[in-house]
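ok trying this again, last paste got cut off
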Amino acid sequence: MQPLPAKDKSIAAAKFLGRGKETEYRIEGNPGLILVCQRPRADGTVNKVWRCYYSVTKDGRQRLRKKRLGRYPYLSLTKARLLCAEVRQAVDQGIDVVEQGRRLKVAEEQASLTFKELVDDYIAIRRAVAQPIRTLDEIERALRASAVPMLGHLNPIDISAEDVEACIDVLKDKNHLGMARHLLSYIGTLFNYAIRSTELADKYGLKVNPATHVGRALTRGERGKYGKSEPGERALTDAEIVELWSAFGRSLAEQRTKLMIWILLLTGQRPSQVRKMTIDELDLGAASGAEWSLAGSRTKNKKPHVVPLVPRVVELLKAQIGDRESGPVFPDETGQFLHKDSIRGALDRMFDHGNLTCPEFTPRDLRRTVASGMARLRVIKEIRDRVLHHTDSSVGATHYNRHDYLSEKREALETWTTHVYSLLEKQAYATRTQSGQDIWSSH
């Protein structure tokens, strides 16, 4: 480092000496005051910058700090000396000026961040890992659909427990307690992850999870505000099944969406599986009976699943498919799968518009209705579980039993379908619902 007299003439004459990116000059008689001459630009001009150097002890080691004061000649020698003296005085009082400035800059940047940006970063990081969590699509959908609209504009640091509770209460007020519990869990997990993640913690400065105590019971053992995460209890009664069929005729929902709901009720399969059913998965002309074959990638337990299709379901599917040979069975206007909320949204609108007056139920409750209904019809549990594709983890099932139960599943679904249509016939729907063509005749 070159010494330089503390004179305006010397400062003006200082030059870049041709080594490295810059040349540093120590101003004589002014401890820590440095003039930096940077590498010349293309036009030959040289930037000169004032700095104040000082050292601090951190983690048992001496560390050099460089505080930028300003550019010469906009900042004169006299003012640079005063600023440098102020910096060193602060250092003598135990203040690390550079670190303090860095923290202020970080705080300013954090103050401009939003919850929506936190969600974006969280989802991007989780997707980037080698094996992202299986429920990430559902977590992202829930956060963007229910949390971002209310919390998205807020700074994550400023979000309070009351803000989170108000967000969850929107679902609770709609009687969607299961969705409310899930959303609360997703928000809590998001904040916990951001607190533990070095990348997100540095960017957002989060220290506290505002969702930690939301909805919790005041006394141990009591039921929390959003209930306990218990198995669902809602299953449609026979009268409600008839009401659902009748509601189709009054609802303005698209015919394909109504058909998906009805097939859920007749097959007991998962809503996502029915919504993403493809023509290639169907064998409607099999000699042994029509079948719907799902690959392991399409099932929850990652094992292949064959669903026998009874004649009434085959008729409805054939009418829906028409002369198409491939693609989704229930396509949208662009030929892609319908939106994941299409089934739930159609049911919600039936309730909102008064087409359904029974207690609310979800698409998943239709699966429970099938299981409960087959139980009433004396279909044994082993066969019900096979229809629903529940995993049997017993030693016998895991290591020895290789029977496919296809005929037993077909018989169970025929028994259930016969029961459902007998309910409609008893309510004087026989002439209009014998084949279901009154509702889906347009297909």
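PB: full thing came through this time. The CA atoms of residues 350 and 356 lie 6 Å apart.
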